[in-house]
Queue: 2 jobs
Job 1
Amino acid sequence: MLNRIKLLLLTLLAMARRKPWEPALIIVAVIIATAGLSSVWLINEGARQGDIASDAPSPLAGARIVASKSTSPLTRQDYVAVRKQGFTQFIATSEDSRSLVCTGSEISDEPSVLRNITLLGVDMLAAPSLMPSAAPPARQRAATGMTTFAAPGVVADINCLTEIERQTGDNLAPPLPVNGLPDNTVIISLAGFYTGTVTPQSQPLTALIAVAPISESDAKQLKDNLPAHLVFEPASAIIAKGNLSESFRLNLWAMGVLMGVVALFIVINAMLLMYRSRLPVAIRLRQLGVSARLLQAALVGELAVYCLISTPIGVFTGLIVTRQLTPVLQQTFAALFDSAFVSPSPFLLTTLAGAFVIALGALTVFSFITARQLTGALSVSALRKPGPGMLTRIILSLVAVSTTTLLVWLANSTLLALISVAAVLLAGCLLIILWLPAITQQLVKISPAHKPLLRYIIASTSALSGKTRLAVCAFFIALSANIGMNVMTDSFRQATADWLSQRLSAPAYLYTEQPHTAFENRVKGVKLVYEGFSNVGQISVEIRSFPGDDEAQQSLALSEVINNDTAQAWQLFAQGKGVFINQQLAFREHLQAGQNMTLGPVFTGRERRGSPVMPAAAVVVAGIYPDYGNPSAQVMLPISRYSPPGGFAGVVALYPETAGAISQYEEMGTVYITDDLIDLSMQTFDRTFVVTDALNVATLLVAGLSFAISISVLMLDIKPQLSVLRGMGVYQWQIKLALLSQYMLFCLITALLALPFGIFLAWVFIARVNRYAFYWVYTMEISIGVLLQSVLLSMLVVFVVLLLPLGRVSPKVDLRQEAAL
Amino acid sequence: MKLLWTAIILMLLMACTEKPQRTSLFASDDGAARQARVTSARPMSLPDDHTSHPDYQLEWWYLTFVLEDSQERQYGLQFTLFRFATEQDYVSNWSDSQQWMGHASLHSPDNHWFESRFAAGGVGNAGVNATPFSATLDNWQWQSTTERPFPASLRFTIEDTVRVDISASPEGPYVKHGDNGISIKSAGGQFRSYYYSQPFLSATGELHIDEQVISVSGKAWYDHEWTSELARDDALGWDWFSIHFDNGDKLMAFQMHVNQEEPYTTGTYIKQDGSVTTLQETELTIRAVDTEMINDKPVPVKWNITSATNNLNITVAPFKPGQWNPGRFSYYEGRVEVRGSHPGSGFMELTGYQ
Amino acid sequence: MISIDSISKHFEGQPAPVLEHLSVEVADGTSLSIRGASGSGKSTLLSLIAGFDTPDRGTITIGRHALPFSDSKAADNFRRDELGVVFQSYNLIDCLNVWDNIAFTSRLKGNADDEYQHHIMHLLAIETLAKKPAHQLSGGEQQRVAIARALVHKPTLVLADEPTGNLDEATSEMVASALYQTCASLRTTLVVVTHSNDVADRANMLRWLRHGQLSADAPC
């Protein structure tokens, strides 16, 4: 048995040697699939190891004990008492928001102020699991300054290479990156925090934070035993938030799956082409007594050889691509996503073995489907089967369309939304397979009879559409996804640009360390911004102040207003009876304009600390505004109601009467001209999508390439026909033009069919995927330029690839032709 | 040829299985030279020396209990408070330069509970008080009524599952080891400590395990040791035994492992009347006879201890396997059974096997 | 009139020339059959007559056209306007139906005439197949379609290379009849290369190709 399989295998490999382009297509497709999926898996692994998109709350976000009044602060003795009572999960913390100065960075040797960075002292000894340490406590000491820690994004932002000076207290060493730490915070041991003139008396403890869960019974016992000047606050649940990093990973997986699917189609198509050309030999073999099972086994053996060649190349390529991208990814993750990207080190043997097994498994499954005809055929006459009838096609089309519509309609989570994306693409494929030949046949009917070459071109296109459906599908999927992504990204870009231009209505903005009192005398020409922190239900919300004057009303677009009455909405807002909420909060909490909601106690600053400046209150949602890219829920309060001294955000909108008047503010902080801010934002926007754009284009190129290669392979089949045409007096250049025309026509028809699907896909991305993943939506803008760009790029790829084989086509008339099937 | 390749691949795959390296448990390069030294010029003086010695780098107050309940089920209980003096090149207004670590461990025949805690000194929630004597770390409380550690009551929790409420009372004198409390632990004498024990403790109390309350009683052994000369990389660990013989005598046997030196053996034989015999290196042999795999490394857990003095020839073996204290400082600490010329029970501590 | 004057053709690697000083003349409207053993050079002779290949020596004159042509455009034009070829393997254009397959040559030449096409299809008894896709035809039907395609544009000369080579006896009989009768009725010169005596014997001139030369004598 083995000898027979070996004999057959050698025969198949000999056939492959004669037409090496056929197995080459399979090998290339497997390489692309394994390379693409390997790099996507590795990049996501690096992100996971960098703790990106972790839903776990920060260890410092647990329940806490705080002073109920600033006149009776939290003391060291209180801390000792709590721990002696057995509540050892509580650790003491203290905050200092006074500015820190970096004495030297990568950019300059000049000292620079570190804006909006809070120094947080933590009794790390009491909770050693918080901080990484393999050394005994005695060894936690830095070479210069006291050891500090911060989230990787903060470390990147600070970018300080030398000591960090405090206004009081001893100097700090540049922070070491540790994942999971709060934003804009540098952590130091409490012993190091209280140095110099900083004492527990001058700077009382801020809170005792529970770093482990506390049961309800323990919480009750604690509350009962706390002295009157202390209060216990339970932990706020943190809802998983969509953020740019999740967006990145989602995109990446989507692109990886897309590449895999495209590669899948390419592989199946390549296998079909290969088996089709081997049909005569296969029939002879079967007629000579080779069983179908034996032939199938030999085919699988042949595929195993191709997998052995292609999977290592694919995996190594994926590894190399990831390694090359790692520095870019590390910068992107730190700067944009505030997290680390750890260069992944896969266990190579496992990855290779896994890739080989998966590839061979997939190919084996495909071979059973595609080689059915090959292994089953005993004569030529049995081969030609008519396609599905009209009724079958209509029924299948209706099923596909209705199923897809239902899935899209019902999608109410990220997973279902992604499934509906897949459904759209697959439905489109099915419709292409069912209807493309019919559409092209109609074109044949309307083609002018007196132009035989034109009719031949169109008829040949029609015939081609029946022979290369899977390559068409791969091309269609890639192009639809490309159009969908481009329309989505373009719409997002436009929406962001419009929104920024509207919201940043002041000509300039000042970022300052000065207290809000510094602006008391400058009533005209400045608008201060206040921020805070609260909760709605279980969700943390940002608080922002917003003015209610006419100018401000122009700068805030409301997508939904109470009773559809914008004037009423602003009136309620100005009176302090209503609030504006962002889309993120509205979608998460299923809120609509006009509904009531309970806003929790409002704290100043960016996190819940100290005493609230506003108690919890029931408010009405006066309006909902878009807030693109913000991962957090947000509530706007009128500045007349919310402008606490401790809540000044350090941001001032400047409305200078003259251009020169801006210079008076430059000594108070950093002034940003609005146009520059917008440019910077849009650059950041573009950077975010660079990697996925690259993958998108790569997928399109791959699909276009495979499409063109498939056609080139088919071109070989019709050589006898080309010979006939030459024999009938058609010029050489006419033949080449005819071939090019039919392929470009084919490509154009597919592209035109991909357009509506691509646009629909863009809508699904925006209204479903984005909606449920990140809780905000934006208007879809269809730009002819963007659509044309995708279509023309794909046609250009096919055109360029076809030039070579077309250039070599030189049909000579040979009277003795081989029989074509 | 095939065989050669197979062999090469197997060799590579096997990787190097290293013998477990002995490591130094408390080694620090924090300038031991700056700490106070163990010297005969400063002799041990009790009861003054029951309290803390902040000038010395390392110190511990160590209690081990061999207990039984009414069904004669055996328990091994350990409570230890450690103090480390750290090198801090800044002055903190929050804490002093001492760091405190507490270990609490309870072994029943089937279970083990262990907890390790840390606290900064000078804050108020950890430390040793002289009069009356108390040793505290958060809600772990060892309270005496006098300046002596005993009689005392101990209350502490382990993993929020176990609560221990136990009293210990002395039934004999305190015992100074070595030369009036100066215990030499290496041939050259560079490793040494101040070391005394109270081996004659009777204990009684309750173990609260989940909802269960178990009354227990038995014996206890107390060690207090302080030094600056063990916190060095060359000190690779030790094997320590505290044994209550059935005849009322006690034995402290100790074997120190020093880098590039032969292990150094020392011990103290304590008769039930309180008389003390120091066993020099030549008078005591401590030999491992069997190992147990713990964390994939062999740890010698069965020992043979012999001494011509008192015709001692005993075998010490753990009362159950797996008596390992995990955590940042991990070591073997467990109750043992003693057979041979002098049967009894006790505790064994093995450090440096990690 | 077809006039072949002392043409020779030698292929590299072969010991002897395939054709050597071969001459023959065929009057307009008549038919010539050429028989010979396999490999005797029959298809080579046809290729030279069609202008698909060029002789090493000698000339070929077909009507007013002198071969070899000076450029490929002239050759293409000749094939388009004056020549009809019936191949051994039918080589219809799969993606076109029968009507379009047949009309291809006349549309190419610009003298498409539906009525004439119907007439030829009637002569070849394939009128009912007009709308059928080419790949659905039987062997005999395909060959008759190929013959119709070769005639519909009113060429000067029809070359048929083993037109019944792949057909059974009964179908061969039908196809051979159709070929000769249609050509005769349209007064189209016909040159047939065949190894079938039945097909060859229907021609006006019978020749055998041996040792690179045409002979009127049958081999022994």
Job 2
Amino acid sequence: MTMYRLKRLSLFILVGIVSSVSLTAGGAHAATLPVAATDVARDWDSIYWFLMWVSAFFFVGIVVAMAIFAIKYRKGVNKRPKYLHGHTGIEVLWTIIPTIIVLWMFWWGWLVYKDMVHAPQDAMEIHVIGKQWQWQFVYNNGKSTVGDLYVPANKPVKLIMSSEDVLHSFFVPNFRVKQDVVPGMYTHVWFEAKIPGIHQIYCTEYCGGLHSGMLARMIVLTPEQWHNFQLGKEIDLKTLAPDPTFPGYETLNNVMMLDRQSKIAAAEAPKNTGGQLSLADKGKALMAAKGCIACHTTDGSKLVGPSYKGIYGADVKLADGRTVKADDNYIRESIENPTAKVVEGFPPSMPPYKGLMSEEEILSMIEFIKSLK
Amino acid sequence: MGQTAEKHGDNYINHSAGIKSWLLTLDHKRIGLMYFCTTMVFFLVGGIFALMMRMELFSPGMQYMTQDTFNKFFTYHGAIMVFMVIIPLIPAALGNLVLPMQLGAKDVAFPRWNLVSYYIYLGGALLAASTLFIKQVDTGWTFYTPYSIRSSTSATYVLLGAFTMGFSSILTGLNFIVTIHKLRAPGLTWDRLPLFLWALYATSVIQVLATPVLAITLLLLTLERTLGIGIFDPKLGGDPVLFQHFFWFYSHPAVYIMILPAMGVISEIIPAFSRKPIFGYKAIAAATFGIALVSFVVWGHHLFVSGQSELANFVFSLLTMFVAIPTGVKVFSWLGTLYKGSLRFDVPLLYAFGFLFVFTIGGLTGVFLAVVSVDVHLTDTYFVIAHFHYVMVGGTILAFLAGLHYWFPKFTGKMYHDGLAKVACWFVMIGFNVTFFPQFIVGALGMPRRYADYLPQFTEYNRLSTIGSWILGAGLFMVFINIARSLKSGKPAGDNPWGALTLEWQTPSPPPMENFKHDPVVTDGPYEYRGENVHWGMNA
Amino acid sequence: MSEHVTAAERLAGGHAHHFKDGDAEFQACKSGMWIFLVTEVLFFSGLFVMYAVLRVFNHDMMHEAHQLLNWKLGATNTVILICSSLSMAMAVTAAQTGRTKDCVRNLWITELFAVGFLCVKYVEYSHKIHEGILPGALWHYAEMSVAKAPLFISVYFVMTGIHALHVIVGMGVIYSLIRRAGRGDFGPNYFTPVEMTGLYWHFVDLVWIYLFPLLYLVS
């Protein structure tokens, strides 16, 4: 290899360095993080990009060194390897410099973290209950919603969270907040949303069966909308802006996610069902979405409540000694007012669903139970 | 055994025949090969689970399986790959083969316990794997409580299987420590010990110190499931987060059980193919122990959002930073070794280059996750998946493949097919990066891990990842075709095809039953490439 | 295979082929045993941490609940185990000096103490099982309603149970030593198994010496 070619090569490599640093860090700037919808999220982004630039620098440096060595010191080019055991100065240097860098990263990260976890004194409190597989939100005025969390924009909000069953984790990418939700203890997150509209919420701690369907929507309202919400007026979600990170896509909660899945299943269902889900299949999806199968199995085994398998048409012994036939009316009653006729050997712990489900939904559930012979 | 055997006569492979002579062998090389074969079978099983998961994730919605099935797949993929493949892969398979030979010993200190250790591993692995056929487990390999207490699957047997395999790990570690202390050849002083052995030593220390804590944790969880002792069960007043502390007290050091030996392999290969002494021998050995030491005090960084105290987050974030420093020292030292070397790009060095490339990404993204605030957004997303696959697959598996090609001629006496091996290496490298790089982005955008289904906006990244998994699968398939083919019809390799200086190369290939014809005496360091040694020897 | 060394060869100073001499082999075994004991310490340390966590957060409960345990029986067992340690040490010395009969006798005495220990444990356990003082979910003891008291009993059963398991394993090993010693396997040139078992047995005693005050004497 002539000197000239080597020089051209190093120029080529230099261009490579610059462009790849820009690509890995700068180019990624555009679309690899969710929109920052709070001030804390913006601080978070600063440290993230600081880490990214430092990493890109080291990574590109190492790779370029490898590339140069691979070319310059190939066996054919360099026949006399240098007999060298180390160099104390440079070894000390590459120990101390990274130490300073990572300590700086730690300290900056810690400062941002303190802002992330310490809610302002005047923050509005909302309670969050995680359960397989839905999020329930309870407001101080006694109102409660499932799957959709309504909050005012530009006001600090503190969530007090607990779980009814197993671990969950509350995650809002646009706010850069995440916190495990633990049974038997309260955990917190806080945020002050700057962008009204809808933001995606995920469950990020594996919680069994429909973990990936345990979504919710963060609905950030303008002062006027928030006022209406508190008065109990219906908010037309169609008029709200979709998740700013993915404006072309719908933001989903757990029920919508299930619905989407059943639509996909329906689209792929064989033609003889006319591309439609059967009523029983709809009931099955609904049972999953509402979290029924957290307590009731479909295979005959006992959980918190009796199994659905083989219950339809059977004679059921109740806790008060009576026996009833599990027909359509009994199942309907057990959904709407479960403590009226509790099956023997089970606690009266199921919440009533009266008024929370449409006629068609109840029908589909009964049909599903019927199908489990 | 063809030419090699005729030339050298008796070796450990043809020494005695019959299946019994293998199953009851006390020879470390045969036990190493048995470990190798077993781990490869489980690697195949775990890999198939991975491919099927990626298949399902090709599109949003559920295509080929239910959510429950997907949850079982990632549980088995994780449990098999961690407990049955990566932990025993380099220490037990390559370590058993190489360690006594690099020491100039005839065997490990306790050959009988070595065999017992293999059967304990096999028994535990089969016990855990047997649940594939009845009530498959869906708890995730981390067994987080209280879900793992409630799960009505046969999780108990997987727990007991992992518990059992722990004893195998402990016995191997114990055996290696005593062997390194007591059976070094004359002249093999501590500052002449090959770096692979320093790495195995540090690994063994972690195995011996951390595995018992996992054992008691899994035992307590088993009792929790069978008797309801309540320690981890919030319903009975217990603390589910305590389980996470116990679990990660082992499982974080376990990460270094997986990566330290991999680093050791790289430290052997780079000087041999650069024909230079390793740059900063003492720094690398010290860094190895530095990492092992720090590994015991950083487990809490897995719990930044678990609800542990702010003070704990402060301390664990700070301590975790100190993992980056010795790791950086190693990477820089390897680069220093390449500097002004005379590099010959055989397959082991190709893989070592691949290792440096991806391990650097894995290490740097680890710093992201160590910074407590940055971790809050990234933890439990695909960013974490990508990070630890860059370390576990990109680090450990690539280093294993490097070591496999490096020592294959020694232990079989045959050479692999060079062309096929190089093509396979490129497939593995490209496939790996195409699979896992998009996961960094999709994770930073918010896609959580362990999701059977995902939102449509993540489709492109997932498609790319799935296509990458096919390329990676094809590459690994080629590696094993090459091995199978070369075992039958590989060219004779010669005793020291790489002209390497460590002791295992100073004896015939394959080695005789007791490793050396004459007891070796060491007179120089393991990487003293100078004078005559710089040349590749007669086989080059 | 030459790895196998017969008892007669060992008594004559023989050793496994991959060691340089019998002493090197003995030293290796000793190091191995110590490392094994370290893993045992860490195994139990998990339990001690569990105990500590419970105690830090539920100090009053621990104080109340520990009264369910009979400290007199616990103290008896402590004495029994200390005595057994003594007889074990005597057995080791006897093996080292080639007094086979003495060795066997002391090993039997150790076994006897171990049986005594387990008998006392049996009395304690059966009383608790009878009363319903049981771990966690199984608890149905009506006379105490301190919250989380069942957790203390869980810790008690798990810790003493695992310790008792170690005693039983030790008894099995000691029994095999008795047979081998009776056969004349040990002498001044070879007593490794006896010494190693001795180390193990002292460790098991030591664990109890920590368990006893922590569980029975909470103040």
